[in-house]
Design the sequence.
């Protein structure tokens, strides 16, 4: 009965939307504007809006990923100014539900990217576009086991506890290690997506665990801070390190051997498909409830390949 009710609510959430595309603003609201990952999402959204007549684009986000209340305010402000649609990367799975419910009540379509909201919010958005973070975390863990074996210590440098992408990504990583090895997990440590915090945390971990064999940096600023700590401590190339995301700093770390590999999401595609999907909803076209935007493992051998250049930024 509950499943039928959820399906009915999902149908209602689409039925109350406008019958045809309404000219106006599509608001792209991300976790923070202070990250090249989210700036690449912006580039994808810009590319999409140029192909859509009658709409304009705005791009915003808090100063930090942990400023959840600020992101809620951005969504509520977009609803209040009656935007045509919203592309949202929610920083917290629970806190954003009331805000996207307000959008649903105002007949404004919402497309989520990168991170999920809680089950209570599933009726209030039309589509979710993201990396399969659990599978990506598992892929990073599998590679780490291949490089260091099944015994020893591995540190997890994470970002914002409870964020939808973090739950899947770090959860998948930990679960795979625990099921397929005897590796001892140190952490996770939460940087709040601040590079300097990740650098200091990693420096402390490296000093406290001289026998550390592997380390995982679970998002862009965390992995950059982790890489810098490895270099500054003289442990680069001595501890097997896997990062996540693919900005220029992380690419350099792969090239010089500080990082063995990086798992790279298609952030450009998230922005591009997010805007395109909002437009499709406004035009009453069917859209998938979930779309996997993919991840690629990039190492020194394939760093310059055409496939890698399409996702690196």
Sequence:
């Amino acid at each position: 009965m509950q499943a039928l009710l959820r399906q009915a609510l999902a149908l209602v959430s689409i039925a109350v939307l406008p019958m045809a595309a309404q000219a106006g603003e599509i608001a792209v609201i991300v976790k923070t504007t202070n990250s090249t990952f989210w700036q690449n999402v912006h580039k994808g959204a810009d590319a999409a809006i140029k192909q859509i007549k009658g709409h304009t684009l705005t791009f915003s986000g808090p100063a930090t990923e942990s400023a959840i209340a600020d992101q809620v305010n951005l969504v509520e402000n977009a609803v209040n100014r009656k935007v045509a649609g919203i592309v949202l990367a929610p920083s917290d799975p629970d806190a954003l539900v009331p805000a996207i419910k307000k959008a649903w009540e105002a007949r404004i379509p919402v497309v989520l990217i990168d991170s999920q909201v809680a089950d209570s919010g599933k009726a209030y958005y039309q589509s979710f576009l993201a990396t399969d973070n659990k599978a990506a975390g598992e892929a990073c863990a599998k590679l780490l086991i291949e490089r260091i074996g099944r015994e020893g210590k591995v540190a997890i440098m994470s970002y914002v506890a409870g964020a939808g992408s973090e739950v899947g990504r770090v959860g998948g990583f930990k679960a795979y290690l625990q099921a397929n090895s005897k590796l001892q997990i140190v952490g996770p440590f939460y940087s709040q997506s601040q590079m300097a915090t990740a650098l200091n945390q990693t420096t402390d971990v490296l000093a406290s665990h001289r026998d550390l064999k592997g380390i995982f940096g679970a998002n862009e600023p965390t992995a950059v801070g982790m890489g810098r700590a490895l270099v500054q401590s003289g442990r680069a190339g001595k501890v097997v390190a896997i990062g996540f995301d693919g900005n220029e700093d992380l690419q350099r770390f792969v090239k010089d051997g500080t990082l063995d590999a990086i798992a790279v999401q298609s952030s450009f595609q998230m922005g591009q498909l997010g805007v395109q999907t909002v437009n499709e909803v406004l035009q009453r076209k069917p859209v998938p409830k979930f779309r996997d935007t993919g991840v690629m493992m990039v190492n020194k051998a394939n760093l310059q390949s055409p496939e890698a250049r399409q996702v690196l930024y």
Notes: The radius of gyration is 20 Å. The chain has eleven helices and twelve strands.
